[in-house]
């Protein structure tokens, strides 16, 4: 019987492979020098080092104790904008990954460094982060309530309806939640509204058969907001942005404590939307599908109607 070649690998073979992936001693030293200059925000020293070929070769190398990371991620983590711009000018990979598949942008968002976030996005960083990382910049910003950072991400085309990338075997109802869910549960009203304004689906729900097979049922954002007792402002926004108000509701004692939110839904069920409101929903849906929501200001209509389409007064 022929054995799979991988089953023949000894511990020594595996150790040898991992040793090949580690930077050489000289390279490790050079990387440390770069990271030291970055940590001290010494942009002059950093520029001098990068003018030498031996150091420039390390510009995308992972090094350091704990979680090895690239110099660009080190600059992002410290919020040192000048060093980050210097690295980018010398050819650093804007979406370089660390061993946790986190990009420098994800690190900057987690650290709440808005200047770093803007610089990376302008340099072409993927606003959605890495496809190999469980979380995403948008999910992180929505959870933390970082409106300015979330605005930057959405301006550069970040997806509004993302969810954590969890293996099928680890999936549960919680992992199906997207940014709207997260913003509502963590009480981040401004982020919640911002996501809706940028085209987030007010009825966002898990539709993947593999995941649904592992959980009893998944809930819409409205259903979740009612169950968690979110303020009525969240319910009103969902109604205004066209959420399905005819979902089955099981009134619990906890929900009765927030009768205002429940009553908003019940009143909406017996009061059809005005033609003007339905027209706004139709226009916004069309523009969202075409990824042209930012074109509202260029429409040949009065400013008052533009404001109405943008839900501003």
Mean pLDDT, all residues: 84
Global Rg: 24 Å
The separation of the N and C termini measures: 75 Å
Task: State the order of secondary-structure elements, H for helix, E for strand.
Answer: HHHHHHHHHHHHHHHHHHH
Number of helices, counting only DSSP H or I runs of 4 residues or more: 19
Uncertain segments are 1-10, 12-22
Biggest pleated-sheet summary: none
**Number of DSSP strand runs:** 0
Q: Please report which band the strand proportion falls in: under 5%, 5-15%, 15-25%, 25-35%, 35-45% or over 45%.
A: under 5%
Tell me the overall shape: elongated
The residue fraction in helices comes out at 40-55%
User: Structural class, judged by helices and strands?
Assistant: mainly alpha
